[in-house]
Recover the amino acids of this structure.
């Protein structure tokens, strides 16, 4: 019983969500997601006339929506009929619904070409990719507004990202009597670690380090009490490394959800988890 999607005016969609009645075990079902602030009781679902599925129809805008079904107000389940998922901040799984021009994003893209690696070893271009995840589909002017920067400074970087296959044009819109392109990312996530070339990873880390240094300098004095800065090292076995990775994934998902809600203040986190090879000289 897949989701039913119908266009409903400019940039709006009528979406009917369904959850199998036999999977609910007789309990009432609610729908929670980014569209209702993950409130487990805000959107009650009703049984269809045949009694085969719980249903709820919402009017949603174009973009990415994350959701789950809530059984007995405490058991959260992803959509069994939707293969598009994203791990959530609690090491579970959210179902992903893409509406409009962003539909067709790849779940993940592994950087494979020199052009792609050159494209991401720029703090500005990494920033553009991050903001596109929350703002797209958008024009250059709209992206500039979200980033609080001048639009003229974005065109060059967007051309490089498009040429590398990391950003795509998904349509055009009329602005001031002229047709302008609308952009989106190609994939929801980029995989940097499939490369066996340490020079590429070191270059990327230098890029991230430059950006982190710039952000740290800009955080003073207003943000000095909100900073968290530390470095840790210790001996970890395979189980310990996996525990750290799970916690980092949890943090990553919290940031991903923050990009969707765009509430509060803008924060940045840069981390590196790597084995240390020690010698007498280092």
């Amino acid at each position: 019983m897949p989701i039913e999607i119908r266009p409903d005016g400019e940039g709006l969609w009528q979406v009917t969500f369904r959850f199998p009645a036999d999977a609910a075990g007789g309990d009432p079902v609610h729908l929670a997601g980014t569209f209702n602030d993950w409130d487990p009781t805000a959107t009650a679902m009703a049984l269809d006339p045949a009694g085969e599925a719980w249903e709820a129809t919402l009017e949603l805008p174009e973009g990415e929506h994350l959701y789950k079904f809530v059984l007995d107000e405490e058991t959260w389940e992803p959509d069994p009929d939707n293969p598009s998922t994203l791990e959530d901040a609690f090491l579970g799984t959210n179902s992903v619904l893409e509406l409009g021009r962003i539909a067709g994003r790849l779940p993940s893209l592994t950087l494979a070409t020199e052009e792609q690696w050159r494209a991401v070893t720029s703090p500005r271009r990494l920033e553009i990719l991050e903001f596109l995840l929350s703002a797209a589909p958008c024009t250059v002017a709209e992206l500039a507004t979200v980033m609080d920067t001048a639009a003229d400074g974005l065109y060059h970087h967007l051309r490089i990202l498009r040429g590398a296959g990391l950003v795509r044009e998904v349509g055009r819109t009329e602005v001031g009597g002229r047709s302008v392109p609308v952009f989106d990312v190609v994939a929801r996530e980029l995989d940097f670690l499939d490369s066996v070339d340490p020079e590429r990873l070191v270059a990327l880390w230098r890029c991230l380090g430059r950006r982190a240094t710039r952000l740290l300098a800009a955080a003073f004095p207003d943000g000095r009490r909100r900073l968290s800065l530390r470095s840790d090292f210790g001996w970890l076995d395979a189980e310990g490394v996996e525990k750290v990775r799970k916690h980092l994934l949890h943090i990553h998902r919290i940031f991903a959800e923050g990009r969707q809600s765009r509430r509060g203040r803008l924060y940045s986190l840069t981390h590196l988890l790597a084995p240390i090879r020690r010698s007498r000289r280092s």
Remarks:
- The helical segments are 21-24, 114-120, 123-135, 140-147, 155-163, 198-219, 238-261.
